[in-house]
Amino acid sequence: MTIVTRKQQESLQESLQQVVRLLDRHRVVEDMVHRQDMAKHELVEQLVHKQNLVELQKKLASLHPADVAHILEALPLFDRLLVWELVKSEYDGEILLEVSDAVRESLLADMENYEIIAAAEHLDADELADLVPDLSSEVRSELLGGLDDEERAQLQSALSYTDDEVGSLMDFEMVTIRDDVTLEVVLRYLRRFDELPNHTDKLFVVDHEQTLKGVLAINRLLVSDPDLTVHDAMATDVVTFHGHDDVGDAAQAFERYDLVSAPVVDSNHKVIGRLTVDMMVDVIREESDAEVLSLAGLKEEDLFSSVWKSAKNRWPWLAVNICTAFIASRVIGAFEETITHLVALAALMPIVSGIGGNTGTQTITLIIRGLALGQINPSNSGRLIGKEVGIALLNGLVWGSVLGVIAWLLYRQVSLGVVMMAAMMLNLLVAALVGILVPLTMQKLGRDPAYGSSVLLTATTDSMGFFIFLGLASVFLM
Amino acid sequence: MTIVTRKQQESLQESLQQVVRLLDRHRVVEDMVHRQDMAKHELVEQLVHKQNLVELQKKLASLHPADVAHILEALPLFDRLLVWELVKSEYDGEILLEVSDAVRESLLADMENYEIIAAAEHLDADELADLVPDLSSEVRSELLGGLDDEERAQLQSALSYTDDEVGSLMDFEMVTIRDDVTLEVVLRYLRRFDELPNHTDKLFVVDHEQTLKGVLAINRLLVSDPDLTVHDAMATDVVTFHGHDDVGDAAQAFERYDLVSAPVVDSNHKVIGRLTVDMMVDVIREESDAEVLSLAGLKEEDLFSSVWKSAKNRWPWLAVNICTAFIASRVIGAFEETITHLVALAALMPIVSGIGGNTGTQTITLIIRGLALGQINPSNSGRLIGKEVGIALLNGLVWGSVLGVIAWLLYRQVSLGVVMMAAMMLNLLVAALVGILVPLTMQKLGRDPAYGSSVLLTATTDSMGFFIFLGLASVFLM
């Protein structure tokens, strides 16, 4: 007997490379077939062609659905759809769940309605709920018709929550037990299952009304005396969630308390579902991805979507940027006369605005992170402002002086150096204040502090940088 | 019996607020005591003072160590150390593990050697390994002396790996079994434990040389016939890791295959440790944090560290920025004569450089993310370059025209509009190429593609933006 040990990431990269190689070979043969207009050797090449695809199919069948999903993400659209055709249909549903929203869209667009419905048949209600929003109303109603009453109720319950509520990620499969039986009975009861729900690390102890009374950890069940009652072995200090709790908060709780699963209860404390760590890991990954992307003004984007589609994804931010750049440009325009008198100002002004933007980005990044981790609150934000202002003053003094001296040496004008230093100091102050107040205000208004904050920041540091520097120059140097 | 249900995030915020309130009250009393120079009411106030601290201590004792860690992160240094004093010492070790490196440093600095050693006594070898690098050599050797042979060997093994290797996060506690016994025997064997190691969702099946032969999932153990042998019930298709595997890759494997724990083996396939999902969640969080911070040129920073310390953390990047800003400034300096002739150029040039920087940031963010997720490889990078160049040309055409028209309308000069459009188009091309090639090259050189990429990007788009725009202007408009 041999153990298939997957040294995972490497073998996944290898799988991806193998798929790409097979696709390439397939393409070469296809090219030959086309070029020769299906003339001689036709039969042979057709065979080779088929053989490549068979090999590819075999390779794909050997892979975990999550790996297939990963490979689909990494393939350009044409290849992606070819591979998607070859995947065994029974895994379609799982793979659709694993890929990112952008890629899922491209896969669904290529599927017939009956294929989608076939793929969805293998999914649980909570998984279906993930998929349903992406389906046409036609497919959706057909799907709903095919469910039994319990599944339909579960699906509707899951759909009644928004994407960022715990209820939307709830698993409905779980094992519940009563507290008056012995562990021996529990062990016997479990043996009647074909398998336990994934990530079952605890059993939920409920009364006859499904009200949660505690949890029995599987590990406790295994080490305890079988004659003990559930009541004596269970834990009553349980981390529970409500359907409307924020998923990000739930993920942080999983992280903090090292949870594998946790019950979701309604307002009467009845168990309505279960959260599992695999979902929470996905939430953490997605939230951090979204944060990085939104700092750059992006939504999730399929790496291999068309130029047109990607361009549209990036345009909203670009349009905003053009407006802010235009405003900054008009600020400079107002000082054109000053610049004509002293053209050195044109060369020095981007230093003031650029460094303001960069220090502000540092501040804003730290603040956004502190907010996301719940470390910043009204009681300490004053102190943070103080600290950032302090840093801005220190930096303004140190680096402003350095740049002031450089400006003086370059242009042999002491007053220019002094203006440079003063402008740096003031713009760093502006950057610090904007960098801290913008995300705090966003948060207070109930908006995502990451999204758009950095546009607002650089817009301000640019315009203010030019205004402060050129303004000081026209007052003191003209 | 009532169940303590913690609606977690909220109650944590409440705890934090409560602690802050108690600290405030404590401070008020202390101020009074000081102001009155310990005169009358002395006794009463001393009592109130004490009472506050007792209440605070009680509150802290009721919290999970991870929550105490969270509160410590959110407190300014002075309050943090006060709270730290009040925390029950038996949890010190756990809390030190939970806080960020920056905060840990501030806490350790406040502890006596014997306190550190007492805190470390409650930790396992793999946890100690996390802490040891932050300790003075004195404390370290004393600690090592207090360990038994097995623990010392484990600690040294853990320390022999670098921070980004799986071995450094390995847990040494695990349950191994033989494959020739029945499940009944396994169940009886488990009952001899006081408790199972955390996150035990599978038992490792080994031979007499500790060579891994398979795993027995706990959930399988529970549902199977007790008369079955381990051999018949175990799974042989096991995801395993090696000590030198990258932790990020391991975390991605945990994410993809929804693992709770996995064996770590040596080159002879002997089990040497275990990875658990809680560690991997921390890795995912830390990696994404590091990515966000390194995009802004930051290292992890204690939100409440001193101005001086924070400033030093931000200076390396600031220094680089000042150099690149200086270079861009000199590029403009070279065209001072051109600007004197046509001062409109000074007002328009930041638009060209700024928008180049922003579109480049979008590209670089997507590429860095694709690299981190392993979606970009040599076979598809060509296609990505093609796509980004396509987007740059499209954007250049569309937005370049818009800006060209605006420039024309503002300054009533058609040729200026044409130069503006051409410069935009070229700088967007530069931005796209730099945005894609810089991270790819970094990755090829084995370096972190996020760190410093965006400095290099904006440095290029600034300097090139000014050069292209002013260069074109001096050729075609003078």
Automatic annotation (TrEMBL), chains A, B:
> Which membrane topology term applies here?
Multi-pass membrane protein
Keyword Transmembrane on entry = yes
- In terms of superkingdom, the source organism counts as Bacteria
Q: Where in the cell is it found?
A: Cell membrane; Membrane
Q: Where is the CBS domain?
A: 234-291
One Pfam family of this chain: MgtE_N
Q: Determine if Cell membrane is one of this entry's keywords.
A: yes
Q: List the SUPFAM superfamilies hit by this protein, alphabetically.
A: CBS-domain pair (SSF54631), MgtE membrane domain-like (SSF161093), MgtE N-terminal domain-like (SSF158791)
Q: Name one GO molecular function term.
A: magnesium ion transmembrane transporter activity
The record lists the membrane-crossing segments as 389-411, 417-442, 454-477
- A GO CC term? plasma membrane
Ordered alphabetically, the record's keywords are:
CBS domain, Cell membrane, Magnesium, Membrane, Metal-binding, Transmembrane, Transmembrane helix, Transport
The record describes its quaternary structure and partners as: Homodimer.
Q: What is this protein's function per UniProt?
A: Acts as a magnesium transporter.
Q: Which NCBIfam families match?
A: mgtE (TIGR00400)
> PANTHER family recorded for this chain?
MAGNESIUM TRANSPORTER MGTE
Q: Which family does it belong to?
A: Belongs to the SLC41A transporter family.
Q: What is this protein called?
A: Magnesium transporter MgtE
